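Supplementary Methods, section 5.1.

A reviewer requested that the exact input to the structure prediction be made available. We therefore reproduce it here, unchanged from the version used in the analyses.
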Amino acid sequence: MTFNEILGWIARHGIALAVGTVVLFGLYRLAQPLIHRLVVGILHVQQAAMPGDAPAEELQKRSVTLEDVLNKVARALFLFSFVFLVLAVFDLWELIAGVGIVVAALTLAGQAIVLDYLMGLLILIEGPYFKGDWIVVQGPGAPVEGEVEEINLRRTVLRDTLGAMHSVSNGLIRVSSNLTRIYSVASVEVQIVRSADLDRALAVARRVGEEIENDPEWGPRLVPAPVNTAVVALTLDGATIRLMRRVPPAVRATASSELRRRLMDAYRAESVGTGRWDAPMPMPVAPPEASQPMPGESTDP
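The structure derived from this sequence is encoded token-by-token as follows.
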């Protein structure tokens, strides 16, 4: 190839490829602020459909999730557009037929993958959970619980309390329970051994749930909310009571731990037994039997 032929090839193909690449890259950079505006519009629609006003943390989680996914979609579109640009510049459209056959075969063989992407799209549109939420997902297998670390069109990534990361295909998710949407609930269950302590235990639990709001350390971290107590089970070992209080999602786990600590201290101070280890049951004592005289024995002093 002579120098003039190289210059001719660059004039015919290289300049067109360079100009097309610059245009595509410019469109990709312009898409980022447009994505932000689109996310804001979607959040307004979701906010109108949800009861009450969502806190700032909730809106931040939604914004981060949607912008992250849409930016990934924009990058994928940029790459696909660049590939088509190369095909157009070098007149390689004959390859499209072969690619179409491969895509059709993969679609038929990977229906589960197609379902994953369809369900991922529905998850992003409906917004049952976002990055940072603590959720429980149920599918064909055992339920998986954890904090949402990533959402994309194919899978949802959760990290549980032990630090294990779970990758759940979106097509397998049949039920998802969001434990931190708008607000969360700090819930504590305690076993009361003696039935005589039940009413007093409920009163102490309600008092503890109300007192934590006046604590100088915990008060600013909570929101004013009612305290609920209930007897949730009766067994041979006693009655199970539950203390429930609405809390911000960010302090759900720590608030539950603090309520347990305060509740046990209060029960210890009130001598309310919460287990066989701290509530020994009194052993019945048989009354002394009157001594009976032996046959032929005199009862006279």
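The chain has six helices and eight strands. These observations are discussed further in the main text.
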